[in-house]
Specification:
Blueprint lengths: L1 E3 L6 H6 L8 E4 L3 E3 L5 E8 L5 E8 L1 E4 L2 E4 L5 H4 L5 E4 L2 E4 L4 E8 L8 E11 L2 E6 L5 E5 L2 E10 L5 E11 L5 E10 L4 E11 L2 E13 L5 E7 L8 E9 L7 E8 L9 E4 L2
Parallel strand pairs: 1-13, 3-14
Antiparallel strand pairs: 2-4, 4-10, 5-9, 5-11, 6-7, 8-10, 11-14, 12-13, 15-16, 16-19, 17-18, 17-20, 20-21, 21-22
Length: 276
């Protein structure tokens, strides 16, 4: 039996099956913005594996959803894709073990950036590597190709999006620990990107309960649903402050306070009410 890893969405599950199948390479940074003022983006691609990695570089168009991404349909791609305005060099890489290379994305010469925001994902895929998963009489092999994608944002102008926290509540995970669920909504033609923190304020002291970095809300979805694990079974009476901080900003872009009332002993979760 042979399984061919074609879609990069499925590769994480395949790679988890065996450490030997891992072709570890990394791309940084996680996100780039290209404008008329800053028309060039540079990525560092590193090979941390013990084998030579050959990779192909291409574009992938994904629609944003409240849960993450989905493949863009032919109907939405013309108004979404940034790829037609960009040039990538090189188109292929060959990295020795421990080696690294630079991938450059440039605005096409003479290209006029449309108003608003467009997005394509830079996709770096390695050639499949045959790896035995289990030795048996019939044999079982997996041909694994690893793919990493990172969003490239093309912006014509900018105005800060309007943000709000909606549909917020406490729930519990399978282990009985509290989880704060919320939806970050965004309005406007440009994306929001940053981090979300949940902080408990009680008796003049603050305690960081949870933090999620690299949170993006794109105009084509308008919302992002998030779950912040609080890693505790109960919350004491106090205030829970939820904050979104845009990347590179020292101050919170959005903040909301929830009153936390102690739950009765038999209750399944603390009660949280929106204060403001």
């Amino acid at each position: 039996m042979r399984v061919i890893g074609g879609l990069f969405f499925l590769l994480a599950a395949l790679l988890a099956l065996t450490a030997a199948a891992r072709a570890e390479f990394f791309v940084a940074p996680l996100r780039q913005v290209i404008t008329a003022k800053d028309p060039v983006a540079r990525y560092r691609v590193s090979n941390a594996s013990d084998r030579i990695v050959e990779a192909r570089i291409d574009w992938l168009d994904l629609s944003a959803t409240p849960e993450g991404y989905a493949l863009a349909t032919t109907a939405v791609r013309p108004g979404l894709s940034a790829a037609p305005y960009l040039v990538v060099t090189p188109s292929r890489l060959r990295l020795e073990p421990g080696g690294h290379a630079e991938v450059v994305v440039r605005l096409k010469k003479g290209a006029a950036i449309p108003a608003g925001e467009r997005r394509s994902h830079l996709l770096i895929e390695t050639a499949p590597m045959r790896t035995p998963l289990r030795r048996a009489s019939t044999g079982l092999e997996v041909d694994v190709g690893l793919g990493i994608s990172t969003p490239v944002i093309l912006r014509g102008g900018f105005s800060a999006p309007t943000l709000s926290f909606e549909s917020s509540r406490l729930s519990r995970d399978a282990d009985g620990h509290l989880v704060f669920e919320t939806t970050l909504k965004s309005g406007g033609r440009y994306s929001a990107y940053g981090s979300i923190t949940a902080v408990l304020e009680r008796q003049g002291r603050t305690t960081l309960l949870a933090r999620i970095d690299n949170v993006a809300v794109y105009p084509d979805s308008g919302a992002r649903r998030l779950s912040l694990p609080l890693r505790r079974e109960v919350l004491p009476e106090g205030k829970l402050r939820l904050e979104f901080r845009s990347d590179g900003q020292d101050r919170a872009t959005l903040s909301k306070i929830f009153e936390v009332a102690p739950a009765p002993p038999a209750a399944s979760a603390a009660k949280v009410n929106a204060d403001r």
